[in-house]
Amino acid sequence: MAKILISYFSATGHTEKMAAYIAEMIKKNGVDVVLKKVEDTDYKELVNYDGIILGSPTYYGTMAWQMKKLIDESVKLHGKLRGKVGGAFTSAANIGGGNETTVLDMVHALMIHGMVVQGEHQGDHYGP
Q1: Residues 6+ apart with CB under 8 A from 94
Q2: pTM here?
Q3: Can you give the pLDDT at residue 96?
Q4: Which bin fits 60, alpha (ψ -120 to 50), beta or left (φ > 0)?
Q5: What percent of the chain has pLDDT over 90?
Q6: CA separation (Å) from 10 to 6, 83, 101, 109, 112?
Q7: CA–centroid distance for 63 within its chain
Q8: In the chain, N or C: fewer CB atoms in 10 Å?
Q9: Phi/psi at 10 (nearest 5 deg)?
Q10: Cα(5)–Cα(52) distance, rounded to whole angstroms?
Q11: What's the pLDDT at 114?
Q12: Which residues, 6+ apart, have CB-to-CB distance to 30 below 8 Å?
């Protein structure tokens, strides 16, 4: 069975609610999901998952430093995440508050790792 990690940072609880909802939807499709706060995620464990989904609030058009720290540490795994499925989501104070740039920052890191990221032709093209 496929195993997905959802690693997220949430200061106010909004991103955490999104993470829980995404985990619930994935589980409904028969996929094993591990839901972890980013501060409890060790970059070394990323290799143990078939898919990795990152979630962060939007701060000044980019991700929280806690998420960036995980991504920066993951450089030690360069090439070892190749072919895994990736995704990202974010929350923000308002529509147009930097959501797309935040998601794209996280997606760029996943793609640099060689991960596969699927876009969406309708709605939020890069992720929720």
Answers
A1: none
A2: 0.95
A3: 79
A4: left
A5: 87
A6: 12, 28, 18, 20, 24
A7: 10
A8: N
A9: -150, 115
A10: 5
A11: 98
A12: 1
